[in-house]
Specification:
It contains 1 helix and 13 strands; from the N terminus they run αβββββββββββββ. It is mainly beta. The strands form 4 sheets. It has a 6-stranded antiparallel beta sheet, with no helix packed on it. The protein has a 3-stranded antiparallel beta sheet with strand order 6-12-10, with no helix packed on it. The structure holds zinc ion.
Length: 151
């Protein structure tokens, strides 16, 4: 095999995140996107009743550490539902031209600067709300464009 080809193959099969963002969840270095389960699918634009899923779901286990995907700051708390259920929490963060919301995490703080890879929270008990779901961090761009290529 040609040396360059071998190198490209090595990069392609490595398990580190492929996009510009770092690892989102402890134990998931490849930022694997949730497939389909009985509660729905995890990719961008997946159906959600009459609406569409305007984010991506990165596989994560309940209670796992969640990390900042890029350097910047935490803008504010951001809740997915506003109904105060067990997974109704998250944050908005921005930096380096990115602005995202991350849902279903218990944040360690709601403001201040963050480094890429810094622990910003833990995944809330998603199984207690959606039993049998593939537990995940929901990530959406603030402008609701597709964030998948950054993962
Ligand atoms: Zn989602």
């Amino acid at each position: 095999m040609h040396g360059v080809t071998a190198l490209i193959l090595l990069i392609a099969i490595s398990s580190v995140a492929a996009g510009q963002w770092g690892t989102i969840c402890a134990g998931q270095p490849s930022n694997k996107i949730r497939g389909c389960d009985r509660h729905g699918c995890g990719h961008y634009n997946a159906p959600r009743g009459v609406k569409k899923h305007k984010g991506v779901d990165v596989v994560c286990t309940d209670g796992s550490a969640v990390y900042a995907p890029f350097a910047g700051k935490i803008d504010r708390q951001a809740k997915p539902y506003g109904n105060s259920n067990a997974i109704d929490n998250g944050i908005q963060l921005s930096g380096g031209g990115f602005c995202i919301k991350m849902f279903y995490i218990k944040p360690v703080k709601y403001s201040g600067t963050i480094k890429k890879g810094e622990k910003i929270g833990v995944l809330l008990p998603m199984q207690s709300v959606y039993r049998g779901i593939t537990s995940h961090v929901h990530i959406q761009n603030c402008d609701l464009t597709n964030p998948t290529s950054n993962l």
